[in-house]
Amino acid sequence: MDEKIKVIFEDNDLIIIDKPGGLVVTNEGRRSKEKTLEDWLRDRGADCLLPRFGIVHRLDKGTSGLMIVAKNLKSLEYLKKQFKDRTVKKKYLALICGDLPREGGMKVPIGRSRFGFGKFGVDPDGKKAETKFRLFSKYKKGGKVYSLVDIDLMTGRTHQIRVHFSNLRWPLLGDKLYGGEKVWINRPFLHSYRISFVHPDGKTIQFESELPTDLKSVLSEYEKEN
Fold it and tell me: How far, CA to CA in Å, does 125 sit from each of 110, 114, 154?
């Protein structure tokens, strides 16, 4: 992980951070001495009595982008309820290995995979999951077509975006776990670039994050279609 955690916004109730790809969010079940977002919050003086130092939701280790961290218990409970009620709006950018249509969606349940530790898959007995996407642009390299898509995450299951696209044989570039082509950044091309929710003071607020440097560099290696 070369990039540092960026603070996008902060007040008495919450922090909005821009997580770099490669950073693990929680210490839970970790045997590695690798620094996590929890460690960063602890070192920064976050309330140690809050569950996970106030982390409201998670992003996969390889996923970069926006996250909300609460600074007090009242804010934590208020924000977690919004996630539970699915009123938080999250949008992602992903580069997909495949020639995708202009828009589409997947609404299939997800559960733990029986074929690999730490892996998830489409499972009729799993949790409900829904993903929608819209095509931004197409790219070519080596005779193959790639699609840059804007994703609306309607539910927040573990590995949801990666599983849903892989299930249609459209894996994310760099996502080796789910069949994506290997690239030098050694992570999936997936970035949480926008988040919108109701602040504890009652006002709706929205934040955006630019595509990080490593993903911009990868994208520059592909030829954009007109």
Answer: 8, 13, 19
